[in-house]
Amino acid sequence: MADQKTKKEISDASIAACQVALMALAEEFYSGTITIDELEGSFKEELKREYIRQYLYGIGGEQNMTKSDWEVVAKDLQNQYKYAEEFIAQLDIASQQDDEGESLKAMFWRFSLYALGAIAVYELANGLFHLADGYTEELWVVDPSVENCPDCLSYESMGWLEIGSFPEPGDWSTVCGSHCHCHKEYRK
Amino acid sequence: MTRKRNRTVTKALDTIAETVERAKSVESHQARFDPKTKSPSQLFYQISMWSKELIFNEPKATADSRKHDAWLTAVVQKEPYLLGVLQSVVSVDKNRGWTLTGGRNQVNKFTRILHNFYVAPDLAGWRNGMSVTSQNYYGTNLGAVVEIGRLQKNGPLAAMYSVDSTKCYLTGDIEMPLHYGNAKKDEGSWGLNDYFRVVSMPSTLESMNGLGYCAVNRCIELAKLLVSVFEHDRERLGSKAPKGILTVNGITLDQWLSSLEESKSELKSLEREYYTGVQVLAGDALSPVSVNLTSLSSLPEQFDHKTFVDLIMFGYALEFGYDPREFWPVSAGTFGTSAETENQHRKASSKGGLDFALGYQEKQQEELPETLEFEFEQRDVDGDIAEVALKQANLDLIDKMYRTSNADQTGTITLAEARELLVEAGIIHEEWTLSQEDVQVTDTDDSGESETLLEKQRIRLAMKKFPEQDIVRYNSKTGKVHTIRSANYQHKFMIRATKPSKSKLLAKRNGVTITENDVKLAVEEAKKRIGAKNIEKVV
User: Fold this and answer.
1) A134 or B232, which is more confident
2) Chain A residue at shortest CA distance from B108
3) pLDDT for res B222
4) pLDDT for the residue numbered B17
């Protein structure tokens, strides 16, 4: 099994690829290649696959998945689908505006945010994997290359704590929301 | 009190206005509908003189084509035969049917755009757009320019607008090759993303920046000849003196000029040009008066007007790339046999005007997504009928061979052999030989044509890109959408694969289901996106 750093890199690369795929869908809708209904279907499908992948990366593969794990993924997806449906409805309204597509273009950046939501799924599964493997403590690690929010800096300052003490990076428990660049490390 | 008085005054004014309006009767606000503006003779005189002066007053052809193109546009309106030819070819182009083939969504979207070709604020539509575009192609050296509207820079085609070619010129700038209007260079410059241009006979001269040589321009020398003949006729028919040497005996020069002046003033006062009064020359009895005119520019003896006009029309037809019979009633015999006429008709119906149509089609195609196929109708109806007749003859022959019994009471050919012959004759599709179905010959859209369409690169791309969509073809003439291949198409003669077993359900919540198949697809996609080796490390 890969080390934590490799797992995190693969998780990040996967999310970046998902963002590209979602933006491609946005372009297709914008150019009229797909309808709003097709956009919604493809959008949800893309999210579903990414959430599954992130959970698998975190938990260490399909062989480690239990019934309750799949239920967790489905529950997270259910929430995301609800937001996605609202977003698509807004897109539909924007696409009918007679403003040469300006309203529509202004909403495009939001497509990529939906992929970032999967970060929390990875972190949750990763924590469960380590817990099952006998790890007892976790550490909040910030990304020094970006500007970090006060919540993340506060968690970092707490040092090593018992597993389950910190929330999951990217789950909107911190001010930075889904833009969180932090991750957790574990030790026995 | 004041309010009541105001109402009374207003009512009175309305009544007066209404009375005055009735007294005037209904009239247009446009001067051209005022019957008092010009008398018919004045109008004819003005048009006649103006067209003559106009056609012989050609501006110099330069890379900045605006002046010359404006002149061409004006000239063609003054030569009725040339205008008739132009009208005919434009009519062919604007009424030419087209098809758009691809995924259903894209076909629906872009059909709407093509049918909203903007020409004027109150005029839009494919036929209007093509009418103006075709006129520009045949009537200006710059050619036809179509402005492309996009929702974003480099975005897909969102609207099409016709352009007045006489307001544009070619800059020779590779980034901004066209300039529109009188705006400053930066403001009026258009890049390749802003428009497309279709031009007839683009110049080989580097200095002309790709300016063309349009059909009307090619016809101008012929038009000049025709106008000259008209002028000659006018001189002969009327009282105008042709160019020549006049010898007058019996009177002095002063007497002759005085007589001419009187005649002219009478002509002017009566507004008569062709049927003037009699010019009177009176001499004394000793020296009889004689007037002899030796014409320097006269039509040859035995000059036949009909043959001349026929030849001019043939010249026009040649320049426009059409058969003369498209525009002009030519009797068989002098210019061709009846069989030749038939061939020419067939050629014209399938080929006429394709120079413009194919040029436009190519440019239009470039502006559409790579998954759409735009095609103008090029069907040769006579050819299609002949082809169907040939297929019917082949079918009859093969059928006879199959049914004929030989000595062993077995058919001359077997069913499989018969079907093979039918394939060779192009009557049935190759794959059909695997099945046993009745065959019918048809001249309508058949599966053969659909198969040919499906082999086109753009349509194959559409099938690949939109597997969940029907592949359809829109026909502008019928306005109908015809499905070429359904999204759930299964080749009818292929053995169906075993239906995959239902994927195992892993989780289900309101609106969300996760199956084993979802997991499999998610992992496969990840391997494609970030590498199989990477993924195998973590899952």
Assistant:
1) A134
2) A32
3) 83
4) 46
Contact A52 B522 (CB under 8 A): yes
How far is residue B95's CA from residue B377's CA, in Å, rounded to a whole number?
A: 10
Give the pLDDT band (50/70/90) at residue A138: very high
Cβ-Cβ contacts under 8 Å, A7 against chain B: 538
| pLDDT for position B331 | 58
User: Token digits for A22?
Assistant: 């979602």
Q: Cβ contacts of residue A21 below 8 Å, gap of 6+?
A: A46
Radius of gyration of chain A from its Cα atoms, rounded to whole angstroms: 18
B279: tokens are: 């010019």
Which residues of chain B are within 8 Å of residue A100 when distances are taken between CB atoms?
Answer: 151
* The 3-state secondary structure of A47-106, one letter per residue: HHHHHHHHHHHHHCCHHHCCHHHHHHHHHHHHHHHHHHHHHHHHHHHHHCCCCCCHHHHH
Q: DSSP characters for B387-454?
A: HHHHHHHHHHHHHHHHH-B-TTS-BSS-HHHHHHHHHHTTSS-GGGGGS-------SSS-HHHHHHHH
Which residues of chain A from 3 to 22 reach within 8 Å of chain B, CB to CB?
A: 6-7, 10, 13-14, 17
Residue pair B512/B519 in contact by the 8 Å Cβ criterion: no
Asked whether B118 and B160 are in contact (CB, 8 A), the reply is yes
Which sequence spans correspond to the domains of chain A? 4-122, 135-187
Say which residues have a Cβ less than 8 Å from residue A173's Cβ, sequence separation at least 6.
Answer: A151, A167
Distance in angstroms (rounded) separating the CA atoms of residues B64 and B68: 8
For tokens 């195992």, the residue is B504
Residue A34 to residue B534, Cβ atoms within 8 A: no
* Partner-chain contact B512 A81, CB within 8 Å: yes
Q: Which residues of A touch B156 (CB under 8 A)?
A: 31-32
Contact between A38 and B468 using a beta-carbon 8 Å cutoff: yes
Task: Give me the total of CB pairs closer than 8 Å, taking one residue from chain A and one from chain B.
Answer: 104
Weakly modelled stretches of chain B, pLDDT under 50: 1-2, 16-17, 19-26, 31-33, 35, 37-48, 50, 270-276, 332-335, 337, 345-346, 348-351, 434-447, 490-500
- B105, B512, B520, B537: best to mutate for the A interface, most A CBs within 10 A: B512
Give which of B509, B510, B534, B536 to mutate to test A binding, by max A Cβ within 10 Å: B509
A73/B106 Cβ within 8 A? no
Structure tokens at B407: 């000595």
Tokens of B42: 């004045």
In this predicted structure, what is the pLDDT of residue B384? Answer: 66
Q: How far is CA B58 from the centre of its chain?
A: 26
Which residue in the block uniquely carries the two structure tokens 């969180």? A180
Q: Phi and psi of A76, rounded to 5°?
A: -60, -40
**Which helix (H) or strand (E) segment is B516 a member of?**
helix B516-530
